């Protein structure tokens, strides 16, 4: 149930069983994901000592004060569970349909599928979060973000080095600083007024507790959280759906069932409107998103032991020492055939349509570490996929889909991209001047 290691004097406890994970999750303050997350973010963004202290405050087992990190989580949940959250879902879908209305792909020109998804989804997600004309639309900022994302682990594993050395050994250092400067201008300009309620709320929280020079640094971490998993999940959705003709047909049928069609009097234009209020009824679509998160998970759940504690009983009773790290091996849990069945290593689109072993699914975290933006992320991906399957046919250049493998080196993300992205042809199914696809609510 647990493997114990010692690395450079730090105790590491690796969890690979649901039973032990359940025991760990019963002590969210003593075995804390948020304490680890706070340290991770501070190392990632390079903040001042004062900002670091405020961000990490009141997360210990015996703390009674209010935590800035927890207030941010609560504020995000309040927004996403309110009418504002529903409107954010609808706005995200409208942004998708508007973007794809204008999008054209050159006939017969091969596309690198993952690079295409990275570019398009960065545009879509950034507009949903930061509004139109946001800085991530600029090519140099888009490029800088991906350099920053690729260097995530390097930032966090070289924290003991002086800043001037880190700036030379980390490829993404200059990219991070460019992002910080750009987001600082955005957050202190008029464009912020057109940003989402979540970005504006986080800005207010940051301004109240952090040094002014660090506000944009912490927004870099928010951007990473918004993009880093949504984008590879969208890629794997395209791969899994378009490589399975039966699944593609089933998804199209479910989207058609929630679509109304209107033909112009002269017959020149057909407008198809997908009902956003009924999008959740496309059960295979949402199940497939969770199945991608299960099958393609590579990340680990990390927690810090904030005081000595004992978990388990009998022969499986363990003493966890203060300062140790608990690692929950997501892939091990997601591939356990005693939990998921003999097809645990296969993609089963309908797996989450019925009852599933909830505790064993860590695609969006679990317990106190569950992602508060899960529903928004899923809705965004579902909107993207709904428009894609109705508007486009995608086929591999070599005529046959082949699993491109997964880049398991990227354990900072919960879902990693491919080792080698497939080259594809992407073709419109209908004349875009004669047929439109939109969302309505």
UniProtKB/TrEMBL annotation:
This protein's name: Cytochrome P450
UniProt cofactor(s): heme
Residues the record lists as binding heme: 371
Record-stated family: Belongs to the cytochrome P450 family.
GO MF terms held by the record: heme binding; iron ion binding; monooxygenase activity; oxidoreductase activity, acting on paired donors, with incorporation or reduction of molecular oxygen
Gene3D superfamilies: Cytochrome P450
Superkingdom of the source species: Eukaryota
InterPro entries, per the entry: CYP450_monoxygenase_sec-met, Cyt_P450, Cyt_P450_E_grp-IV, Cyt_P450_sf
Keywords: Heme, Iron, Metal-binding
